[in-house]
Specification:
eight-stranded mixed beta sheet, alpha/beta, 15% strand
C-alpha cells in the first residue's frame, strides 16, 4: 500500500472528519477528543451495519470492486492512469506464477508447507485475469486491518511464498512480482481479499474476508431496527469449520483462548471470522478469522485504543507486542455461539436466537479511556476472569489481554429478551414494553446472588427469569392479546414502578449485601473503565478472593446505563472459559499440554503427596518383592481369578446370552412403523404406491464407529432378515452381509451410490434407508461444497441422505432412528410430525402392557432412585474427587480442567488397585467410590467358579487423555501382577477392540465358540469379562454395553457441555434391562414404578423403593430436598480418616475387603450386623440402622431432589455404597448384575443439572438447548411442561427451535408453503439401549411380508360340486384343441341342469332325471355364514389383475383419476328414462359420466341431453378396444370392489359402468371419480342383485334399440350393431386360460397347462367367435386348483353361467331377470333362458378367479326388528308369521325374508321332500333355493318351452311362486304327486292368493286349512308376501 493513496488526501473526506471532530468535542464529556488524523487514517470510512456486511457474499466481489473504484474517485482530482511496469527480460509472466516461475495458486500449493515468518499472515490475492483462483501471499499483519477495518499501517511489507523472495516494501513492486497485471493503480485494499487458513487436515483453504471497509455503524441507533435476516444468507466469503483447526501462521507462542473460533459442526461457513491472536502457550500458532458478517459484532468491543500503532514501518513496534491489534478472547457471533458441544458454555450457555425473532442491535462501540490489564494477573490471581459485556458502552482493553476473556453472551441475552415474542407481534402488540435495561441488570444481580458457591450461571435460567418478570409485569395486556380483541389498548403502566438508573446501583448493592460478598457491586460515575480498573486492582491485591461475580454499573442521569459483569470465582471462571472452547479446540489444547510436558508438574506434585516416596517407586518395590516370593500378588482373599476347569468341575449357570429374541414392545414398534408406511400409501398424495412393490431391500447407515458397525452386523446376522426378505440365500457370508450396512465415513459413498443405482434399476422393489443414530452428524453439505478441500466427511450425511436422487426416488423410504430426535424437530425439519413414531409406553397405570421378563432402566429411573427414600441412588457424585480437582485447579490455573480431572482420577484408580493388593497406606490417596469400584472389579471374578466378572466403563471423551489413562492403568496393573484378574480395554471409535489372548480364550469358552480366529468385535462380546473399558471419543456413537456392566464412571465427561442431547447420550450409556425375576439375594422387594415413558418426568411417586442388595444393612441419611443441601457420596474427610476403618466393598467376603489390620474390629462389627440383617431383615432393622448411622457421616449417599427425562420407569436394584454385603457361598457377580442397573458417577455440575428440577417439577436438563446446531427461536417461549408426551415435546421443538446455518435443515425453507416435509421420511425415537435396532429389523421383516401379502390375494379354490351327478358323455362334441365352439355342435349338447358352482353348495339340487344316488347331501352342513367355511388359496397377483381403490401406480393414475397433477375429474349427471310395461311405469336412471368418458355416449346437440351409449359393430375387427360394455353391480364395496380394470384389460380401451344404489352414489364417486356410474332409482335402495341385473339388461336392450335407430340413419343394418354386454361380479380378480398341447401320437392324447392372461385377450377371443350373435349367454369356468383334465377335455359346455356373463340382450329380450331376487337369480335366469330355447355356452378353456372380500355384497343386508333398535338376534324361523298376528315385524324386504326362510326352513312346507331326492319339489317358472336337503325340478309353463321329461317322475311337493297367466290348471294336471305331498302358493297379497287357488282349480287335488296361511314378517306398508300351503289328496 506504499503508493496506494498516491499522496492525495481526499479533501471532501478531510472536511467531513474535521467537522465531525469539532462537533463531537463540543458535545462530548470526554476531555480529549480523538485526533482528526487518527480518525482519518486509522479508521475506515463510516462502517456499514454488521447486518449489511453480513449479507455480503463472494459473488458480489465485482460490485465491491466497482464500489472501491467509485470511492477512489471521490477526490476532486481526476484518477491517475496507471501503466504497469514492464517486467524484466526473461522472467515468467504467466498468470498465477511469480516472476521466478513458481506457482502461487491456492489450489496448487494448498497442501505444501509454507514458511511464514513471525508476525506474517498468509492472505489470498485476487488477479483480474484469474477470477477463479487466489494467489497465496505472506503479508506482515501490521499492514492488514483489524476486524473493524482499522489500525492497518499505511504501506506494505510482504514476501513471495513461491520463490521465498522477501522484503517487498511496496505493493506496486509486489504486484508486479506476482504478475497481477493490473490496469489500475495497485491497491492492497482491492487485491488482498482473504485470509488463508488451514483446516483439520492441514489443507490451506480460503478463510474470511479481510475487513478493509470495516463494519462500523453509520449510527448506533439505526442498527437496532436493522433486519437480521441477512445473517442466514449463506455467503461464500465466510469461514467454516475449516477455518477453525488451522495451522499456525502467527507468533510461535500464540494460544487460542476460549471461544475465539468455531468448529465445522456449529456454524455455516457463512460467518467471516476475526483474526484472533492469543497468549503465549498455544500448542500451535493459530490464524483464526472470526466472523465479520455475524449478527452481533462482539469484536467491536475488543479493539485496542492505545494511541494506535505507529505510522509506516515503525522500528520499535513488534508484532508480538500486546498493543498489536489483537481481538483476543471475543466470542464470535453470539448467534452461533453454541458450538459443537458446549453451546457457549457450561456456565452461561449460549443463547442462540433465530434471526427473525426481532430487532437485534449490534454490540456497542467501545468508548472512554482504555483499561490496562495487569501483567501478572493470571500468575497472582490464579484464574482468568471472564467479563460479560452488558448494556451500553464497553471500554477498550489493553495490556495483558491473554489473561482475561470477554464474551458478548450476556449482551445478546439482554437484547433478545427485549424483543417481543412473535406470538404477540401478530396482534400489533406495541403497547407491551420490554423489560428495561435497569430491570434486566437488577434481575441478573438477584440471580447471581442466589447461586450456590459451586454453581455456574446458566443463560437459560436468566432467560426464564426475564420471561417470567415480563409476563408478570404485563399479565393483563398479554391476556388481552391472547383473546385477540381487535382494538387498540392504552398504555397501561405495570404494577411495579420502573427502576430508574439512579436507583439501580443502590438496589443492586442492597441485593448483594446478603450474599457474603459473593457478588460485589462497583458503581462508576464516569465510565465502566473506572470500575474495570478498580476490579483489576482488587484482584491483584487479593480483595476478591471470596467474590465470584463483580457487577460494574455506570448509571448517569442523562443517558442509558453501561454495565458489565466479571466472573472472578476461580471455579466459575474456569468452567465458563473452557465452555467456550469447541471440541476441536478442547482436544488441541489438551494435546498441546500433553505434548509439551506441561502436565509433568502435575505428576511431580502427585509424587510428593505420598509419604513413602514416589508411587512408581512403591510399585517397583512391590513388584520386586512379589517376584522374589512365591505368594500371590493379592492377599489370600484376593487371589487369582478362578478359571474354568476343562473337565467342567466348576461351572457357572449365570452366564446366559439372550440377544436374539424379539420382545413384544419391539414388535409393537415395528407394527407402528408399518402402520405409518401404510398411511403414507393410503393418503391421497400418491407419494408411495405400496401395491407396485414386490420385495424390500434396505441399507443401514451407522456412525463411523467400528464397534457400532460390527454390532449392527451382529444384529442383522442373527435377525435372519436377509433370508426372510429373499435378498440372500442360505450360507450367508459376512462379506455379503456387509453390503447392507454402511459406516458414514469417506468410503460410504460407494455403497450409497450402489444403493441409489439399485433403486433406479428396480422400480418394483421398495428400498428402505435406515439412518441409525440419526442425531450424530447433521452438518450442512454447504460446508463441504464451499470448501471442497476440507475433510470429506464434513456434511456427508447431508450430501447422501438429502441428495436430489434420494428426494425424488419414489421407491425409497428413509427411516431416521435416534434416541435424541430433538435436532430433527425444528421449524425447518424435513420430517412431518405425522411421520414420527415414538417408543410406546411400557406401563399404563401400573399395568405391564408388554409381558416382559426384563424391565428397562433409563434416565428417569436413575433420577427416580435419587428421590426414593428406600434405596440407594444410582446416580452419584464423588465429592472428595471434586474437592481435590478444585484444589488442583487453583494450583495449576494454566492446565485445562479435563487434564487435571483425568490425572487425578487415574491416580485414584492406581491407588485403589494398590490398596486392594495390600498397600493399605494408599487408601488415603483414593476416594471411597473409586476404591469400591476397584475392589468389586478385582474380587468379582473370584466369586464365580468360571471367573465371570464385572465391567467398569471409564468414560474419557478426549482420545489423547484416554490413551494416557490406558497406559498408566496398564502399567500399574502390570506392576501389581493383576494382568489375569481383569482386562483394561481402550475403546476408540475409529478402531476395533483389542483384548489380551488370555481373556479371549476365556470368552471363547464361556460363549462356546470354536472358531480359532475369533476375537471380540463389539462390547456385547465382552459379556462377563472383568474389565475396565476406557470409552473414548467426543460422542458415544450407538455402542451397546453388556449386561455385566456394573459401574459407569462419567466423572470425566465434559461438564461444560450443557446441551440436552449431550447430557442424555452420556447418561444413555448406562441404560439397562434389569431381570425382573425375584432374586434370592434381594432383601427388599419393591412395587413397579408407575410412570408414562412418554412423559418428560417420572417423579410423581416418590415413596416407591428400589430393590437393593443389602440395603437393610445401611440406612441413608435423610433426604434433603433443598438444592444446596445435596449430600455427596463421601465426605471429604473420609479418605484420610475413615478409609481404613470402613468397609468399602459391597460384594466381597470379609477377608477380601480389608487389607489392614487396623480396621478389622470396626469392619467385623459392621459385617456381623449385615449378616444378621440378611438372614432376618425385619428383626435386625433397628440394630442395623443404629450401626449404620455411626458411619453416616463418612458414608453418605448422594441424594438430590430431581426430576426425570422422557424415559420409562421400572424397578431396579442397587448395591449399598459403603457397606459390605456378605454372601454365605460364592455367587457369580453376573447373577446380581443382571438384576441391578449400573451405578453411575457424574461430575458434580452435571449431577446438579440432571437431578434438579424447576418449580413445576420439570427436570432442568429437559429445558436446556436441545442440540448444539439448533437455537431457540425466541427467548420468550413458553416453558416445557412436565407432563408433555413425546409428541407434544416434538411439537414444542418444532415451534420454538430453528437450525443454525451449519445444520443440514437450515436451507429447508419454502416461504409461505407447507411442503417442506419429505413425504417418505420417518423418524423413530426411543430411549437408548431399549431395542430400536431389533424393532426396525422386525419392521423390515413385516413390511416384506405385507408387500408379499399386497401382491397376493385370497381367491376361492373349491372343487366343483355335484360332479357325481354329471352324465358321463359317451362322445366328445369338440376336439380338445378347438378354439371356438361350432354352432351346430353346440345345439346338440344337452343342457346340464345341475349346479356345479361351489358357492351354491347349500342350494337345492336341480333334478333333470331320477337320481340313482339318494345320499344325504346336507351332512355336516351348518346354517352359519357360508363365507367362513369356503376354501380359499393365496395367489400372487399377476400383471393382469383387477384392483381395488388401494392400488396406485403410475400407469393407471390417469385411469383412476387420482393423478395429483390434475384436479379431480369433473363429472356430469344425466337422466336416462325408458318405459317398461311389467313395472307399469317409466324407469328413470341416472348416469354420472366423467368428462374423460363422454366419448362413449351420444348427446343431443342443443341441450346436451343423453341420448344413448355408443355401441360398435359386429363386423369391427379392431384389436385396440373391447366391444362389449361391462356392467358391475356393487354395494358396500366402494373401497374393496375390484373396479380398476386397467391392467386386466392390458390398457385397452373399454367401457366400464358401475351400477350403484342411489344412497351410495356419493361415496362411490369419491373413491372412483373417473368411472361411469349407473345410479339405480331410489325405490331399489333396499333391493337385491336381481334388481340390478334386471335394470342392466333392460337398459341395455333399450339402448340397443336406440343405437339401431341412430345408426340405421347412417346406413348400418340393425343386426350389425353389437348386442352383447358383460355383467361381471365386483370380486373377479384374475382370468386364466388353459393351453392344450395335442401333439401326441393319438388324438385322444393331450397335455394342458393353465396360465394367467389378460381379460382383454379372453374377451377379444370370445367376441371373435364365429356366429357369436347366435349365443344368448357366454361364460367361463370358475377357477380351481383341483380342476381335472376330464373337465376341460370338452372345451365347451352347455350349463349354468355365473359371475362373469356375456349376455346377448337381443336374443334374451323376452327373458328377464327377476328384479325381486336376492339370491340365486343367475340360476333362475339360466333355467328360463335355456327353457326358452336359447343357446348357452361355457368356454371351459377360460376361468375366472374370484377374490374373497369380507365386506359388502350380500353381507350388507342385515335383518333386524323394526320396533327395537336393540341388536336382538333373529332366527330365520321368525321370518314368517301368521297373518294378522302380533308378531314382531322386521325391517327387511319381504323377498329377502322369503328366500332366507325357504333356504333354512322349507322342510316345514315340504316335509315329504326332505332328503327325498328321487321325489323332488316341482317348481314352476322359477328356481328358489329350498335348502340342500330338498331337490327341485324346474319346469316352464311357457308354450314351446324346453323342459325335462317328467312323465315318470312323482313329485313330493309343488311350489307356485307369483304365477302369471301362462300357468293354467291343465298344465298342472300333467304332473304326478305323492300322496301327502305338499303345495306352497306364494302371492303378493291375500286376495291374489285366493284368486290363484280358484283359477288353477287347486282345491280339486289339494286340501287347504285356514291355519296354513302365512306371511313374511313385514308390516303392511312394507308389502309382505303371503303363503298358502296345502296337502295333496
Amino acid at each position: 500500500m506504499g503508493n496506494s493513496y498516491a499522496g492525495q488526501l481526499k479533501t471532501t473526506r478531510f472536511e467531513e472528519v474535521l467537522h465531525n471532530s469539532i462537533e463531537a468535542s463540543l458535545r462530548s464529556n470526554n476531555l480529549v477528543p480523538r485526533p482528526v488524523f487518527s480518525q482519518l487514517y486509522l479508521e475506515a470510512e463510516q462502517q456499514l451495519s454488521s447486518l449489511e456486511a453480513g449479507s455480503r457474499v463472494d459473488n458480489e466481489e465485482e460490485e465491491e470492486e466497482e464500489e472501491e473504484e467509485e470511492e477512489g474517485s471521490e477526490s476532486s482530482s481526476p484518477p491517475i492512469a496507471y501503466q504497469m511496469k514492464t517486467p524484466p527480460e526473461g522472467c515468467c509472466t504467466t498468470d498465477g506464477f511469480c516472476q521466478a516461475g513458481k506457482d502461487l495458486r491456492l489450489v496448487s500449493i494448498s497442501n505444501e508447507q509454507i514458511e511464514v515468518p513471525p508476525g506474517f499472515l498468509l492472505v489470498g490475492a485476487k488477479s483480474p485475469n484469474l477470477p477463479d483462483h487466489l494467489l497465496v501471499c505472506a503479508v506482515d499483519k501490521r499492514f492488514l486491518p483489524d476486524d473493524q477495518g482499522r489500525n492497518a499501517l499505511l504501506g506494505f511489507s510482504g514476501n513471495c511464498v513461491g520463490c521465498s523472495k522477501k522484503g517487498f516494501c511496496y505493493f506496486t513492486e509486489f504486484s508486479n512480482h506476482i504478475n497481477l497485471k493490473l490496469t489500475t493503480q495497485p491497491k492492497k485494499q482491492k487485491h488482498l481479499k482473504y485470509y488463508l487458513v488451514r483446516n483439520a487436515q492441514g489443507t490451506l483453504t480460503k478463510g474470511s474476508s479481510i475487513c478493509w471497509k470495516g463494519a462500523e455503524f453509520r449510527s448506533r441507533q439505526s442498527s437496532s431496527s436493522a433486519r437480521s435476516n441477512a445473517l442466514f444468507q449463506p455467503p461464500e466469503n465466510t469461514s467454516s469449520s475449516v477455518a477453525v483447526v488451522n495451522e499456525p501462521v502467527l507468533a510461535p507462542h500464540s494460544v487460542v483462548q476460549a471461544g475465539t473460533h468455531q468448529t465445522v459442526s456449529d456454524h455455516l461457513p457463512s460467518t467471516v471470522c476475526y483474526p484472533v491472536y492469543n497468549g503465549k502457550e498455544s500448542p500451535q500458532q493459530h490464524s483464526v478469522k472470526s466472523n465479520l458478517s455475524s449478527l452481533t459484532r462482539p469484536s467491536v468491543l475488543g479493539t485496542l485504543t492505545n494511541s494506535g500503532p505507529p505510522k509506516k514501518r515503525h522500528k520499535g513496534w513488534s508484532p508480538e507486542s500486546p498493543s498489536s491489534n489483537e481481538a483476543w478472547h471475543l466470542q464470535p457471533n453470539p448467534q452461533i455461539t453454541n458450538r459443537n458441544k458446549n453451546e457457549g458454555g457450561g456456565g452461561l450457555s449460549s443463547l442462540p436466537h433465530a434471526a427473525m425473532v426481532g430487532p437485534v442491535s449490534s454490540p456497542l462501540v467501545a468508548s472512554g479511556e482504555p483499561v490496562s490489564i495487569p501483567d501478572n494477573l493470571l500468575k497472582i490471581y490464579k484464574a482468568k476472569p471472564v467479563i460479560f459485556k452488558g448494556h451500553g458502552n464497553f471500554p477498550y482493553l489493553c495490556g495483558n489481554l491473554n489473561d482475561v476473556i470477554v464474551s458478548p453472551l450476556l449482551y445478546t441475552c439482554y437484547k433478545n429478551s427485549q424483543s417481543l415474542s412473535r406470538a404477540y407481534e401478530q396482534y400489533g402488540a406495541s403497547t407491551i414494553q420490554p423489560i428495561s435495561d435497569e430491570m434486566q441488570l437488577l434481575l441478573t444481580v438477584y440471580y447471581l446472588v442466589q447461586l450456590a458457591p459451586d454453581q455456574v450461571p446458566l443463560i437459560e435460567d436468566l432467560e426464564q427469569i426475564f420471561m417470567r418478570s415480563w409476563r408478570e409485569l404485563h399479565l393483563s395486556e398479554i391476556r388481552q392479546y391472547q383473546q385477540a380483541i381487535p382494538q387498540a389498548f392504552p398504555q397501561v403502566p405495570g404494577p411495579i414502578a420502573p427502576v430508574t438508573s439512579t436507583q439501580l446501583p443502590w438496589l443492586a448493592g442492597l441485593a448483594a449485601s446478603s450474599c457474603n460478598d459473593s457478588v460485589h457491586i462497583i458503581e462508576c460515575s464516569y465510565s465502566l473503565a473506572e470500575g474495570l480498573s478498580e476490579m483489576f486492582k482488587m484482584l491483584m491485591e487479593g480483595k476478591l478472593v471470596k467474590t465470584n461475580y463483580v457487577v460494574i454499573i455506570c448509571a448517569c442521569r442523562n443517558r442509558t446505563i453501561d454495565s458489565c459483569i466479571a466472573v472472578t470465582g476461580k471455579h466459575q471462571a474456569r468452567i465458563l472459559s473452557e465452555s467456550m472452547l469447541t471440541p476441536t479446540e478442547y482436544q488441541k489444547e489438551v494435546s498441546y499440554e500433553l505434548v509439551t510436558g506441561k502436565v509433568d508438574a502435575l505428576g511431580t506434585f502427585f509424587s510428593t503427596l505420598c509419604p513413602d516416596g514416589d508411587v512408581d517407586v512403591l510399585l517397583d518395590k512391590f513388584y520386586q518383592e512379589n517376584q522374589s516370593h512365591t505368594s500371590p500378588s493379592l492377599p489370600a482373599s484376593v487371589n487369582k481369578a478362578v478359571t474354568l476347569d476343562i473337565a467342567g468341575t466348576a461351572m457357572c449357570t449365570s452366564y446366559n446370552l439372550e440377544r436374539h429374541q424379539i420382545r413384544p414392545f419391539q414388535l409393537a414398534v415395528a407394527q407402528k412403523l408399518l402402520s405409518h408406511v401404510c398411511s403414507i400409501a393410503d393418503s391421497s398424495t400418491q407419494n408411495l404406491d405400496l401395491g407396485s412393490f414386490e420385495k424390500v431391500d434396505f441399507l443401514i447407515c451407522v456412525p463411523p464407529s467400528e464397534v457400532t458397525y460390527q454390532q449392527t452386523l451382529f444384529h442383522l446376522w442373527h435377525s435372519g432378515v436377509l433370508l426372510e426378505l429373499g435378498l440372500e440365500k442360505e450360507h450367508l457370508t459376512k462379506q455379503r452381509m456387509e453390503q447392507y450396512v454402511v459406516k458414514l465415513d469417506t468410503d460410504a459413498q460407494t455403497k450409497f451410490k450402489t444403493f441409489l443405482h439399485n433403486s433406479m434399476q428396480n422400480p418394483h422393489t421398495l428400498f428402505v434407508l435406515i439412518h441409525d443414530h440419526a442425531h450424530w452428524d447433521l452438518v450442512s453439505s454447504a460446508v463441504h461444497s464451499l470448501y471442497p478441500q476440507s475433510d470429506p466427511a464434513v456434511g456427508l450425511v447431508d450430501r447422501l441422505l438429502n441428495c436430489r436422487e434420494m428426494k425424488e426416488a419414489p421407491n425409497i423410504v428413509t427411516l431416521h432412528v435416534t434416541s435424541f430426535p430433538y435436532a430433527l424437530q425444528t421449524q425447518y425439519t424435513r420430517i412431518s410430525p405425522y411421520n414420527e413414531i415414538h417408543w410406546p409406553s411400557l406401563y399404563n397405570n401400573g399395568v405391564d402392557l408388554y409381558h416382559e421378563s426384563k424391565k428397562y432402566y433409563g434416565l428417569s429411573e436413575f433420577i427416580e432412585s435419587t428421590l426414593s427414600e428406600h434405596s440407594l441412588p444410582l446416580l452419584r457424585y464423588d465429592s472428595s474427587f471434586e474437592t481435590m480437582v478444585m484444589a488442583y485447579g487453583k494450583r495449576f490455573p494454566r492446565l485445562h480442567s479435563a487434564v487435571i480431572r483425568t490425572f487425578v482420577l487415574v491416580q485414584h484408580y492406581s491407588a485403589a488397585m494398590m490398596a486392594v493388593c495390600g498397600l493399605s497406606q494408599m487408601k488415603n490417596y483414593t476416594t471411597v467410590e473409586t476404591l469400591e469400584i476397584t475392589q468389586n472389579l478385582i474380587n468379582s471374578s473370584r466369586q464365580c467358579p468360571s471367573g465371570h466378572g464385572l465391567m467398569v466403563v471409564l468414560r474419557i471423551p478426549c482420545i489423547p487423555l484416554a490413551v494416557v489413562a490406558y497406559e498408566r492403568l496398564n502399567h500399574v496393573r502390570e506392576r501389581l501382577a493383576l494382568e489375569d484378574h481383569f482386562e483394561i480395554i481402550l475403546g476408540n471409535p475409529n478402531s476395533g477392540i483389542t483384548v489380551g489372548k488370555h481373556f479371549v480364550e476365556q470368552l471363547k469358552i464361556w460363549q462356546k465358540i470354536e472358531d480359532a480366529e475369533w476375537s471380540p468385535q463389539t462390547y456385547l462380546d465382552l459379556e462377563g469379562l472383568p474389565c475396565i473399558l476406557i470409552f473414548s471419543g467426543m460422542d458415544p456413537q450407538g455402542e451397546s454395553l453388556p449386561r455385566s456392566l456394573r459401574y459407569c464412571d462419567l466423572r470425566l465427561i465434559n461438564s461444560s457441555c450443557l446441551v440436552r442431547t449431550t447430557l442424555e447420550q452420556e447418561l444413555g450409556l448406562a441404560a439397562y434391562f434389569v431381570s425382573s425375576e425375584t432374586s434370592t439375594e434381594k432383601v427388599v422387594s419393591n412395587d413397579v414404578l408407575e410412570s408414562d415413558p412418554e412423559k418428560l418426568s417420572s417423579t410423581d411417586n416418590e415413596d416407591e423403593e428400589t430393590v437393593t442388595e443389602g440395603s437393610a444393612s445401611e440406612k441413608r441419611s435423610p433426604v434433603k430436598r433443598e438444592r444446596s443441601g445435596s449430600h455427596d457420596s463421601a465426605a471429604s474427610s473420609l479418605s484420610s480418616k475413615a478409609s481404613s476403618t470402613t468397609a468399602f466393598c459391597s460384594e466381597t467376603s470379609p477377608p477380601s475387603v480389608t487389607a489392614s489390620d487396623t480396621g478389622k474390629s470396626a469392619h467385623q462389627t459392621l459385617s456381623s450386623s449385615t449378616e444378621e440383617s440378611v438372614n432376618n431383615p425385619e428383626k435386625q432393622r433397628p440394630k442395623v440402622d443404629k450401626d449404620s448411622k455411626s458411619s453416616a457421616k463418612t458414608a453418605q449417599a448422594s441424594i438430590t431432589s430431581s426430576s426425570a427425562s422422557p424415559f420409562s420407569s421400572s424397578s431396579a436394584s442397587s448395591i449399598p455404597t459403603h457397606s459390605s454385603f456378605i454372601l454365605q457361598t460364592p455367587h457369580c457377580s453376573m447373577t446380581k448384575v443382571s438384576q441391578q442397573p449400573p451405578i453411575v458417577y457424574l461430575p458434580k455440575l452435571v449431577y446438579d443439572i440432571v437431578t434438579s428440577a424447576d418449580s413445576t417439577g420439570l427436570p432442568k436438563s429437559s429445558s436446556l438447548l436441545p442440540y448444539h446446531s439448533v437455537m431457540w427461536a425466541s427467548s420468550f417461549r413458553p416453558l416445557m411442561s412436565k407432563m408433555m408426551t413425546c409428541t407434544e415435546q416434538s411439537l414444542y421443538y418444532r415451534q420454538w427451535t430453528v437450525p443454525k446455518p451449519v445444520h443440514m435443515d437450515y436451507n429447508n425453507r419454502n416461504e409461505g408453503r407447507m411442503d417442506t416435509f419429505h413425504p417418505r421420511r420417518l423418524l423413530l425415537s426411543g430411549p437408548p439401549q431399549i431395542g430400536k435396532t431389533g424393532a426396525y429389523l422386525q419392521f423390515l421383516s413385516i413390511l416384506s411380508r405385507m408387500l408379499i401379502r399386497l401382491t397376493e390375494v385370497d381367491v376361492y379354490d373349491e372343487e366343483e360340486i355335484n360332479t357325481d351327478l354329471k352324465e358321463e358323455s359317451v362322445q366328445y362334441y369338440h376336439q380338445p384343441g378347438d378354439a371356438w365352439p361350432d354352432l351346430e355342435t353346440m345345439k346338440k349338447i344337452p343342457f346340464d341342469y345341475t349346479i356345479h358352482d361351489p358357492k351354491y353348495e347349500d342350494a337345492s339340487l336341480i333334478c333333470s332325471r331320477i337320481l340313482v344316488k339318494n345320499e344325504d347331501r346336507s351332512a355336516n352342513k351348518k346354517q352359519e355364514d357360508l363365507y367362513m367355511r369356503r376354501q380359499t388359496t393365496r395367489m400372487r397377483l399377476s400383471k393382469y389383475a383387477a384392483y381395488n381403490t388401494y392400488h396406485h401406480c403410475e400407469q393407471c393414475h390417469q385411469y383412476m383419476g387420482f393423478n395429483p397433477r390434475y384436479q379431480l375429474y369433473e363429472s356430469t349427471l344425466h337422466a336416462f328414462a325408458f318405459s317398461y310395461s311389467m313395472l307399469g311405469e317409466e324407469i328413470q336412471l341416472h348416469f354420472i359420466i366423467p368428462k374423460s368418458k363422454e366419448h362413449h355416449f351420444v348427446f343431443s346437440h342443443p341441450g346436451r341431453q343423453l341420448e344413448s351409449m355408443r355401441l360398435p359393430l359386429v363386423t369391427d375387427k379392431s384389436q385396440d378396444y373391447i366391444k362389449s360394455p361391462t356392467f358391475t353391480p356393487t354395494t358396500g364395496r366402494h373401497e374393496h370392489g375390484l373396479f380398476n380394470l386397467y391392467h386386466a384389460m392390458d390398457g385397452a380401451s373399454h367401457l366400464h359402468v358401475l351400477v350403484v344404489k342411489e344412497y351410495e352414489m356419493a361415496i362411490y364417486k369419491k373413491y372412483w371419480p373417473n368411472h361411469i356410474m349407473l345410479v339405480l332409482p331410489s325405490i331399489f335402495n333396499s333391493a337385491g342383485v336381481g334388481a340390478a341385473h334386471f335394470l342392466i339388461k333392460e337398459l341395455s336392450y333399450h339402448n340397443l334399440e336406440l343405437e339401431r335407430n341412430r345408426q340405421e340413419e347412417l346406413g348400418i343394418k340393425p343386426q350389425d350393431i353389437w348386442p352383447f354386454i358383460i355383467i361381471s361380479d365386483d370380486s373377479c380378480v384374475m382370468w386364466n386360460a388353459v393351453e392344450i398341447d395335442c401333439s401326441g401320437e393319438r388324438k385322444s392324447e393331450y397335455t394342458w397347462a393353465e396360465r394367467n392372461i389378460s381379460l382383454k385377450q379372453i374377451l377379444q377371443h370370445i367376441e371373435s367367435t364365429p356366429n357369436v350373435t347366435h349365443y344368448a349367454l357366454i361364460g367361463m369356468r370358475k377357477w380351481s386348483s383341483k380342476t381335472k383334465s376330464g373337465e376341460i377335455k370338452e372345451p365347451f359346455s352347455c350349463c349354468h353361467i355365473h359371475d362373469f356373463v356375456m349376455l346377448n340382450v337381443d336374443l334374451t329380450q323376452n327373458v328377464q331377470y327377476n328384479q325381486n331376487r336376492f339370491m340365486c337369480d343367475d340360476v333362475d335366469f339360466n333355467l328360463r333362458a335355456y327353457s326358452a330355447g336359447l343357446l348357452i355356452c361355457q368356454f371351459n378353456r377360460f376361468s375366472v378367479m374370484k377374490k374373497q372380500i369380507a365386506v359388502g355384497g350380500q353381507r350388507s343386508f342385515h335383518i333386524k326388528s323394526k320396533v327395537s333398535d336393540n341388536p336382538v338376534s333373529i332366527t330365520p324361523a321368525q321370518y314368517i308369521c301368521a297373518p294378522d298376528s302380533k308378531h314382531t315385524f322386521l325391517a327387511a324386504p319381504a323377498q329377502l325374508l322369503l328366500e332366507k326362510y325357504l333356504q333354512y326352513h322349507s322342510h316345514r312346507f315340504f316335509p315329504l321332500s326332505l332328503k327325498n331326492y328321487n321325489h323332488p319339489v316341482l317348481s314352476v317358472d322359477c328356481y328358489l333355493n329350498l335348502g340342500p336337503q330338498i331337490a327341485v325340478c324346474y319346469v316352464s309353463s311357457r308354450p314351446h318351452s324346453l323342459n325335462v321329461s317328467c312323465s315318470d317322475m312323482i313329485f313330493s311337493g309343488l311350489l307356485l311362486y307369483l304365477c302369471d297367466s301362462f300357468v293354467v290348471a291343465s298344465f298342472l294336471k300333467k304332473f304326478h304327486f305323492l300322496k301327502g305331498a305338499t303345495l306352497c302358493v306364494i302371492c303378493q297379497d291375500r286376495n291374489s292368493l285366493r284368486q290363484t287357488v280358484v283359477r288353477l282349480e287347486l282345491e280339486d287335488e289339494w286340501q287347504f286349512r285356514l291355519r296354513d296361511e302365512f306371511q313374511t314378517a313385514n308390516a303392511k306398508e312394507d308389502k309382505p308376501l303371503f303363503f298358502l300351503t296345502g296337502r295333496h289328496i
